[in-house]
Design goal:
Layout (H helix, E strand, L loop, with lengths): L1 E7 L8 E6 L2 E5 L26 E3 L5 H4 L2 H7 L4 E4 L1 H21 L10 H10 L1 E2 L6 E3 L10 E7 L7 E7 L2 E5 L23 E5 L13 H17 L4 E4 L5 H14 L8 E3 L2 H11 L19 E2 L8 H4 L3 E4 L9 H9 L6 E4 L8 H7 L5 E2 L8 E2 L3 E4 L8 H11 L3 E5 L3 H14 L4 E3 L7 E3 L2
Parallel strand pairs: 3-4, 4-5, 5-6, 10-11, 11-20, 12-15, 12-16, 13-14, 13-15, 16-19, 20-21
Antiparallel strand pairs: 1-2, 1-22, 2-3, 7-8, 8-9, 9-10, 17-18
Helix pairs in contact: 3-4, 3-7
The structure holds zinc ion (2 copies).
One zinc ion binds next to loops.
Length: 455
């Protein structure tokens, strides 16, 4: 019997963490934090592990909603062995340290800082890096059979180093998509799925509720993006693009660069900085090893100005440019959040969203507000009148619902477990799987519920 217990990241995006007990061996897939929550509230339900065997943790990729709680897990269970791809290990070294730095700035109360830079150093060193497709053989301390569990990472095409995870045990296989993108993006070349039967599929459902008309063709969207930026620049304004430091920064920067090169976009300074710039260097360093579209392309060679050299935001009134600033959801006190306070008041400026925004995040509040209406970035912040242009563009780093559905159609697994999506996304999948493949058993588990599967 295989027991599966999701500890977080079921009906929303955040704190992804799934526990598997395979014949006495305890495995965790991911251990993330919730981006909108703070401290203990942001963690998965790690207390549910207290009386369960736990031997290994596999990290699918270095986004905070998949890795952010790893330092806490290792404090609680220091014996656990961590596996990730070499690229995820390298990025984790930057992003986990960055998370500590942010916490130190944010909280005067040191008790809310749950771990230190020294602990991150040790943790990152202890990760066992495994390349895509290499086989790992495992047997936990209390493993009840002579047969080992075999685990492999597959390129998930989502960001640098991202992996789906295939687990094989006693002629049965379990495939966890992690965050996956099958079609190419500007840099990443798309996921590589296993040529293997899959009995149980654990899939993300991020875009399950989004129909294709809201996810336009990449080529068309790039044109609309260039046109909208040109319009702002033509008025002498600047454009703010809130982005995740990891993945979105690199993809959007590359799109902007290609548009400028093709003369479709006005050539103005592009501002970047912080951990995003360091992550771009990791992308460049690994470009010959991973599946990127153009191995000769280096992100660091794109002309960029350092955003952190500019302390006065009125600078952008005098010198129009394009600003890529984290965080993507404009979480309180991040660079994009601070810049938004200036941007919102400028009628010739624009704030353009390019990725997933959580309901009720400051980004979502801005996006939902109407021109000349007051917008409150957080419950306690002073309302600001929205004067600037707001638009949203779709450059997804996740598969749309039809691509995810094609994975289900390809393998026709015995069971599908729907994760990492809002309930209306999971509902779309549930309804359509049962309609098209009535023999597939569908689970949309809640956090802490148990799924038992015959092995
Ligand atoms: Zn991700
Ligand atoms: Zn995710």
């Amino acid at each position: 019997m295989i027991k599966i217990i999701p500890l977080g990241g079921t009906d929303d995006i955040g704190a992804s963490c799934i526990y598997l007990n395979i014949d006495g061996t305890g495995l965790l897939l991911d251990c993330g934090v919730h981006p909108k929550k703070k401290g203990i509230d942001s963690l998965p339900e790690l207390d549910l592990l207290d009386n369960l065997p736990l031997d290994y943790v596999f990290i699918s990729h270095a986004h905070q909603d998949h890795i952010g709680a790893l330092p806490i897990l290792i404090k609680k269970f220091p014996h656990v062995i961590i596996y990730a791809t070499p690229q995820t290990q390298e990025i984790a070294n930057l992003t986990l340290h960055n998370a500590v730095t942010i916490l130190e700035k944010d909280f005067n109360d040191l008790s809310l800082i749950l771990y230190s830079h020294e602990e991150i150093d040790l943790l990152v060193k202890s990760i066992i890096a495994v390349e895509y497709n290499d086989e790992i053989q495992l047997k936990g301390l209390r493993h009840k059979s002579l047969e080992p569990i075999i685990v492999q990472f597959y390129d998930a095409g989502h960001i640098l180093g991202s992996a789906s995870i295939l687990i094989k045990y006693k002629h049965k296989s379990y495939f966890y998509t992690g965050d996956i993108r099958i079609s190419p993006q500007q840099i990443m070349n798309g996921a590589k799925l296993p040529r293997y039967l899959i009995d149980t599929l654990l899939t993300e459902t991020t875009y399950g509720s989004v129909s294709l008309k809201n996810l336009p063709e990449l080529k068309e969207e790039k044109k609309r993006f260039a046109k909208a930026i040109n319009k702002i620049l033509g008025k002498g304004g600047s454009v703010l693009i809130p982005v995740f430091a990891l993945g979105k920064t690199q993809e959007i920067l590359s799109i902007i660069h290609s548009l400028i090169k093709k003369n479709e976009l006005t050539d103005v300074p592009v501002y970047t900085g912080g951990v995003g710039t360091k992550i771009s260097q990791v992308y460049d360093k690994n470009r010959f090893i991973v599946n990127v579209r153009d191995k000769n392309f280096e992100i660091s060679k794109i002309p960029q100005e350092n955003l952190y050299n500019i302390t006065d935001p009125t600078y952008f009134n005098r010198k129009p440019g394009i600003v890529l600033a984290a965080s993507g959801m404009m979480i309180e006190n991040t660079t994009s959040f601070k810049l938004a306070k200036h941007w919102l008041r400028q009628k010739d400026f624009g704030i353009f969203f390019v990725g997933y925004v959580d309901i009720d995040s400051p980004a979502c509040r801005i996006y939902s507000a109407k021109k000349n209406q007051k917008v409150q970035l957080t419950d306690f912040s002073e309302p600001i009148e929205l004067k600037c242009e707001i638009d949203k563009f779709s450059f997804p780093s996740h598969s749309d619902r039809y691509e995810i559905f094609s994975i289900i159609g390809k393998y026709k697994p015995d069971q599908v477990i729907l994760l990492h999506g809002e309930n209306n996304s999971r509902d779309w999948f549930g309804y359509n799987i049962l309609k098209e493949f009535p023999n597939i058993k569908v689970y949309a588990p809640t956090t802490g519920s148990e799924i038992l599967i015959e092995s």
